[in-house]
Specification:
- It holds the Pfam family SufE.
- It comes from Sphingomonas desiccabilis.
- There is one protein chain.
- By secondary structure, the chain is mainly alpha-helical.
- 52% of the residues lie in helices and 10% in strands.
- It contains 8 helices and 2 strands; from the N terminus they run ααββαααααα.
- Strands 1-2 form a two-stranded antiparallel ribbon.
- Helix 2 crosses helix 3.
Length: 135
């Protein structure tokens, strides 16, 4: 998975149509999430598209998230969010200001409000899981 900084470097040079394509490509590059994990328990509430996020804890204590969506652009947004926190410790995730990390992408101006309305809920779920594993 690319770092947010690397993605932002590329994103900043693109016109709006190419930014959409980049988001779609990021979503396609996500690690596949098995259908068996796409349950009501892993569903992120409040998203216009269906979004599932499933955390796993690695032996080194870092959290690895599997995620998917039934919408290509939304899946790309998930990839951006995960780029900020993937494979980090619960404490590092809790210390990360994810909205601030995503701010340079200015998603609210690039995408419709329907596309971005679920981002706070995705972030809240990730933070909740980090808090749960931090105990």
């Amino acid at each position: 998975m690319q770092s947010l900084d690397d993605i932002l470097d590329e994103y900043g040079f693109l016109d709006p149509d190419d930014r959409y394509r980049l988001l779609i490509d990021l979503g396609r590059a996500l690690e596949p999430m098995p259908d068996a994990l796409k349950t009501d328990a892993t569903l992120v509430r409040g998203c216009s598209a269906s979004v599932w996020v499933y955390p796993t804890r690695r032996e080194d204590g870092t959290l690895h998230f599997l995620a998917d969506s039934n919408a290509a652009i939304t899946k790309g947004i998930i990839a951006l969010v995960l780029s900020a926190v993937q494979d980090q410790s619960p404490a590092a995730i809790l210390a990360t200001d994810i909205p601030a990390a995503l701010a340079p992408f200015d998603l609210s101006k690039q995408l419709s409000s329907n596309r971005t309305q679920g981002i706070p809920n995705m972030i809240a779920l990730i933070r909740h899981e980090a808090e749960r594993y931090a105990r």
